[in-house]
Structures are given as structure tokens and as C-alpha cells.
């Protein structure tokens, strides 16, 4: 199956940018915008980190149902249907924010959105691999990262800036965030309608079981899931997936609270709009540039050649937050520059992780195996994130960011153990 070429003549540029923009929106809403919103609504760092880390769970367990995306319907069908559901969920969040029990109700909707988004990721990533040849996958990995990051700019940059503007001019934080989510819902529903017509029809995008009986489905499920764990050096693979981003998993949950908290509490005392500019726009732009460069260089010399450079790039710039927490600079340009350095390194270094997952997933069950990889990736983000808020509350921002630097060590160890084909990712003549 993997050798069959797609017949669609549609340019990848007509659907990859919007597909990964659409993939990025619900993820950034659940994982980042929710953190900023809850912080502004007065929720503690401990509760924010703990409860929003639990929202990683759908991405952790999505391998349990990922074979069903291969077995039933097409990836194209799943993408469009789930995008409509996510758009409706965004609108539902807007309705819950003004409620007295907003925290419980909005979390419930975020759970629905998280499950829909995780399932959408399975279909979208599978569609990407079915619709492109291997050298195109490497060349476009930077493009998909770019538009995923543009979604982040739109989400945690422009929309957070808008929420900050509305906070000031509406006089109500809840009203400001409710309006913001209504705008986001309208945008996402438009994306779903566009994809109904714009996505191509790869020849191999079809159900694995055309007329599925219960026994056939179960047999295919067991075969698909079991074949992943029969791969060579599976424990090294799992270690890489779980620990490559061990430090970043803790850092990402506390960045926006650190930027928003008062200086007396160890933070930088930025406004909501300032965070939208510094972290959500400049930071994500640098992240995007790092991802673009990473995809380009891997397509030229392969993953193995760049792996160790990318390992250093993703980990060492975390020291920028050690500097910010100790110096607490007031110069906004300096703060933006430090964030930009850290995010560029993260974008460049994360490209190695993405291509490693593509390499591991190669075979007749690409979609399901990639979903399993991303499930372990999410688990590697979820567990460290759950205790990060409580740890920060206990030791303060300065010591917390020092701990983050120490937490980069497992990332170096698993990179040392990983086996990579020297030719993987290179564009073939």
C-alpha cells in the first residue's frame, strides 16, 4: 500500500496550509489559550497546570481508536466532519464563560474539543502521509509546521491581543473572552466548509475493511495496534517519544502565568495584550522560522545528520527563562528577544521529533502508527505538566526554571540511544 502513488493533481499548497492551520487551532485553544483565559479569570497556577494537563489525555489514548480511522470511512470524511464538531465546541465555550460555574462547564466542553481534535489529528496526519511522497513529506514538514504555528499566532497572538483589548473596553473579562471564542468559532467553521471542497482524493484514502463485520474490525484492530509494538528496538523508540521533550513539557505550562504574574510574585507583570505580542506573535514567528529551517535542512542532508544539532537547539535556549526570572527586565523588546531565541530553538529542534515519528510510522499502517507515536508524545507532555504548577508554586519561578534546565538531561540520553537511517528524510534524485 505504501508504494501506491496518489492520483490527485491538486497542489499540496492548496490544502496543506489550511489543513494544519485547522489542526493547530483547537490544540492551541485547549493547551494554551485556556491557560491564559483561566489565569485572567483568577484560577491558581496549581489548578491551571493540573486540570489543563489532563486535557492531554485524549491525545495520549487516541491510539486506542486510531485504527478505526483506517477501518471506517476515509481520512477526508473524518477531517471535514470533525472540523464541524470542533467549530460547534468553540461556540459552546463562548456560551459557558459568563456562567457562574464557568470553570466546570468550560472544562467539560474543552474535553469534547480535545477528543475531537485528537481524532482530527489522526485523520489529518494520515491524509498527509497518503497524499505525499516521502521526499515531499520531508520538504513540507516545515510548511505544515509553519501553518500550524500561524494558527498559534492567530490563537495565542492575535486573539489573545483581541481579548486583552476587549477586557479594557468592555469592562468585563468574561465578556471579552466570550466574544473572542465566538469569533474563533466562526473562523473554524469557515475552514471546515473550505475543506469540504478543497481537499484532494488520494487513491489510497479508503477504508481498510470495505464491508466491516465485527470480527473483521477486531482482527484488523489487533493487527494494526500489535504491529507497532513488534517494531525493532521499540523500548528505545518509546523512550525517545516520552523524554525528548521532558523539559519543554514543564516549561510550556508555566510560561504564560510567568509572563502575566506580578513582579512581586516573581513574574514579569505583562498585560494580556503584551503576552499576545511577545509570546503569541513574536515567539510563534520565531518558532515557525525554526520549524521551516528544520524541515528544509533535513530534506537536504537527512534526519541523522541534523539530529544532535537539533537536540542542542531545543534544550539549551530554555536558559532564556532562567535569565528572565532572575533579572525580571522591564524592557519589552529584551523580553521579546529572549522569548524569540527560546522559541526558535524549540521550532528547529522539534522538527527532528516530528520526522522521527514519520520514520517510525512508515509501513502499511502509517496513520494508526503515527497516531500511536503522537499518543506517547502527548503522554510525555501530560505527566510532567500535571506536577509543574504545584512544583512552581512550591519553589518559585527562579528555581523552577533552573529545574527545567536540569530536566533537559533525559532528552540528551534518549537522543544518544535513538537509531536513525542515514538516508531518511533526504530528497531523492
**Can you count the helices?**
17
What percentage of residues falls in helices of 4 or more residues?
over 70%
CATH superfamily placement? MFS general substrate transporter like domains
Helix-strand pattern: HHHHHHHHHHHHHHHHH
Question: Which fold does the CATH topology refer to?
Answer: Growth Hormone, Chain: A
What does the radius of gyration come to? 21 Å
Portion in beta strands: under 5%
SSE class: mainly alpha
Number of domains: 1
End-to-end C-alpha gap: 22 Å
Based on the structure given, which CATH architecture is correct? Up-down Bundle
The pLDDT mean sits at 86
CATH class call: Mainly Alpha
Q: What does the model show?
A:
- The chain is an all-alpha fold.
- The chain has one domain: Up-down Bundle (Growth Hormone, Chain: A).
- Helices cover 78% and strands 0% of the residues.
- It is built from 17 helices and no strands.
- Helix 1 packs parallel to helix 7, helix 13 runs antiparallel to helix 17 and helix 14 packs antiparallel against helix 15.
- The protein starts with 15 loop residues before the first helix and ends in a 12-residue tail after the last helix.
- The N terminus is likely disordered.
Brief write-up:
The chain is about 80% helix and about 0% strand. The protein is built from 17 helices and no strands.
How does the SSE layout of this entry go?
Elements: H1 16-40, H2 45-54, H3 57-61, H4 66-71, H5 75-96, H6 102-131, H7 134-170, H8 173-198, H9 214-228, H10 234-243, H11 246-260, H12 272-301, H13 303-315, H14 319-327, H15 332-361, H16 366-406, H17 409-417
